[in-house]
Please model this.
Amino acid sequence: MKYPSIITDQFVVKAVIFMVARNVFIPLPIPILSARLYYCGRNVIENCICANMSVSRLSCDDVTLNHLYQFAVGWTLLGSDLILIFLSYILILQAVLKLKAEGAVAKALSTCGSHFILILFFSTILLVFVLTHVAKRNVSPDVPVLLNVLHHVIPAALNPIVYGVRTQEIKQGIQRLLKKGW
Model:
């Protein structure tokens, strides 16, 4: 097996350092930029989730720098995620197509397909959410709130269903519950 030769302790440490650096240090300036702003007037966020874009909109100062940084960071993080996911799927597809075991290709593609659909759904909602913030004047104020909720709730709710139903024991348990008339 190649797995132990690739996923070494050193690789895991490097991966953890990369993830912490990427997800802590790159977004860190966002609240710092917002903290330097002067806030006056209204203090009600037009969203159900305290997103930084909504907080910075409450400022009386020019928030162009905040929005440009958030936009660049968002596209950098989401873009790099999507590129890495796409590349990993290419590598997985190449490896899967070499499998000789009966049903192995179908099983692998089924698992990857479920994951890909969740990632696509998550990314699409996030993209539309960001675009509605950009085109705020042309969109009902309820649309960004709805998209924000969908972005946070739907993937989290679908994840255990998509992966859980694949497990034979869970599938049998659900079938038993449905037969009992639950």
Notes: The chain has eight helices and no strands.
